[in-house]
Amino acid sequence: MSRLQSAFQGWQSTGHKALIPYVVAGDPEPGHTVALMHAMVKAGADILELGVPFSDPMADGPVIAAAHERALRHGVSLRDVLAMVREFREQDKHTPVVLMGYLNPIEAMGYATFAHLADQSGVDGVLTVDLPPEEAQALTDEMSRYGLDPIYLLAPTTTVDRARKITAAARGYVYYVSLNGVTGAANLDIEEVQRRIDTLRNISHLPIGVGFGIKDAAMARAIAGLADAVVVGSVLVQSLAHHATDPQAGSEAVCALLRGMRASMDAVMNVNS
Question: Which one of 27, 29, 56, 60 is the catalytic residue?
Answer without folding.
Answer: 60
